Structure formats: C-alpha cells, structure tokens
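Hello,

Our lab assistant flagged a job as stuck in the queue for most of the afternoon. It eventually completed. Since we weren't sure the result was trustworthy after the delay, we are filing this so someone can double-check. Below is the sequence as submitted and the structure that was eventually returned. Let us know if re-running is recommended.
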Amino acid sequence: MNKYICLLYMFVLFWACNDDESMFNVGIAQENISFKAIPGGAVMYYELPSDLDVMAIRVRYKDAFGQEIVREGSYACDSVVLHGFNEAQQNVEGRVTLCDRNGVESGATKVTFDTQDSGPVAFFNEIEVKPGWNGFSLSYNVPAGGEGMAHVFYVGENPLTKEIDTLLVRSFVFGEGKDSLNLQVQQEASEHTVVVRTEDFRGYIVKQQIWENVKSFNTMKLEPESFEYSDPEGLGIKDDQNGISKDYLFDGDLKGFTSFGGNIHYMGTYIAGPNCFGKALFELDLKEPKLLAEVRIYAILSLSRSFMGILANAYENRLPCNITIYASNDKVSWDEVGHYEEARDLDPGLRWAARSEGNAGRDVFYRTELELEKAEPCYLAINFPILEKNYRYVKVVVNDTSVSYNGTDYNVERHVTFHEFELYVGKE
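-- returned structure --
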C-alpha cells in the first residue's frame, strides 16, 4: 500500500510542476509592438524583452475568409508579415504571445492593425479594357507591393458543348507597375463580353469584373497584288544567281524553302544594303487609305547549314533588332505607327529570331523538307494600336541589327535581311 501511495504522490508532484510550466510568464507590452499596413496585410514590428528564455513571438488573427492564421517571428528578427486579406480593413483584431525554447506560450496581448487592398483587389483600381485587333487590349497599374494572378475570359461558344460559355484567353502572374496586353481570341466577332478574375497565391478567387460590348477590329492579310513596292533609296539587292531579290519578300514562303537545297550559295531571300540603317528599306503603296493593323517579318528557320557571301558567318547578325514602321498619305509627312526594339546583344535564345538559321539559341534543326513543313514559322509581329485614321503608304526603316551569338559584329557593311514581309489591315 505504501508503494502505491508513493507512486501517487510522485504523479501529483509531476503534474503540479508541469502545470506551473504550462504558461510562460514573460509577456510583451503593447508599446513594444507596432504595425504598418501593406497590400494584402500588415507588417508587425516588435521589440522582445531581454529575457534569454524568449525564443519567438506568435500572433493569431483571422484572415479575410474567417480562418485563424498563426504567424511566428524569431528572436533574431524584428518583424513578421501578416497576410491573408483582400479589401483594405481597419482595426483587425489579433493576439500576440511570446514563446520559450520549449514552445510554451505566454499570456496574450490584444492588438489591432490595419491593412491595404491586396494585389488582386488593387489590380482593378486602374484597369482598362479597350477595343483591339482580333480581340481586345487590357492595361493595368498595380501599386507598389501588389502581386497576384489574373485570368482573362471572353464569352463565346464552347467548342465541345456548343453552348455559350466563358472561354479562357490568358492567365498570368502580375506584380507592381504598369503593363498592357493585346489579347486575341479564336472566335471572330464585332464585339465581345470580357471577364477578368483575380486570385491570390493561396488559390482563392478574390474579385471579378465584366465589360460588355467591347469592340473588336478583325484583320486580314493584304495580298501582294493589293499594293505596289518601291525602293526609294535603292537599297534592295538583286542577284539572280545567288537568289537575292525583293520578290522573295512577298512569295508566301514563310520558313525558307527557297533556300533549302544543295547549293549553299543560293540564298532565296531578301537583302538590303550596304549602309541601310536608318533609311527606308522600301515603301508600299496600298493604292487607297486603309486601317493599318500589323506587320510580320519572317526569318529563315535553322537548317543545319551555313550561308556564304553577304550572309556568311552570322545570318542573325543581319536580322533587325530595332525597326520602325511609318505611314503617310502624301509621302511627305510620315507618322510612326509601330516600333520594336530588343538589345542587339540579347541572349540568342530570347531573341524574336531565336529559331532562325545559324542562331545559337535554336533548340532544333530542320534537316529535311518534311521537318521544315511541320515547323512553326519564326517571325516578329509588330502590332499597331487602333489608329485614328487610315493610311495609303507604309515605310519600313531598320535602325540596327543583332550581333552574332558570340558577341561579335560581323555586319560591318550594315546589311539587313528578312525572308518574308506581311502587312495586315482592318477587315472591311
């Protein structure tokens, strides 16, 4: 019996000691805690007591969905981020405790803090959906610190069910700052209903907005018989023996079949120069004013071969990296309607012509005509905004070309090449 009594006494003593340690007796005063509102939450700044047993600080609060969140800060830091909010809130309640090295918590100190609109909410503060080519354009301006994900839809016919549905155009992650997107849709229409949804990085849909009756301007390619080519500066090279001519600009070969063969001297493409930077490579007379939409400039796909002559050493060294498109109605006053520019020494794999002939950024070679047939064309599209007037004349000016993949500029005579040129206008 004495044995059992002794065991019972030891158990009670252990329980009493454990109960004494169930709460950490060191607390934190409210004056040692402060908050700063940020997008989607707040930053809690703290100054811990100078007690060696204090190892961490914890704060509990409920997020925008009513779920309890626990955030922990280390003794080695002085702040912790409190997230989980959408629309800006004021006087959000929270409880702050300290923890010892065993994870035992102190009594709670009640706090309140404010938050700012999260990125997925602030995304809509300065958003615009405007008419676009074959779809619509979207622009936004997210304040500092805002981030999230956006999904853009339009209302159309679901190709599987044949029922009216919201069809995804694009999903993208956004951060602070301005950006704009030209979004093209698969189904042609004169106007669209556009739906934009945002979500946070926890997967919650935060906000949605709908724009109805957004006009869409559809485009069509202008066929060569609809315009006249001219070379006012005399820069276009004509060499029938080696297959160099302006005729290759408009022959419909988008990939380089005309240069695919046994004779490596035969190029089957367009070349201008020398010394043609900043000059009109050529002009097009559309015969009547038209609503200009886009130009596309194509490069020869890599064919596991090398050119000779003007294009020797580096084909990509003669491809434009800085190009401007002008338009006019009298050939005296020219308006800039489109421009594209990338760094001339941009990594080859990131260039618009990454899959072009000879480029080190290519990840595939096309060794047979069948492989070339299946390949996607390599082209640069320069989209114009919806212009306020129609134009009859178009002028193409190349300002610079890319350097070779090894950083060397072999294009000392300032030649320019591209394989095919297409002009798109508003569909009448």
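-- support follow-up --
The delay was a queue issue, not a problem with the job. The result is valid. The longest strand covers residues 205-217. The domain at 2-113 is CATH 2.60.40.10 (Immunoglobulin-like).
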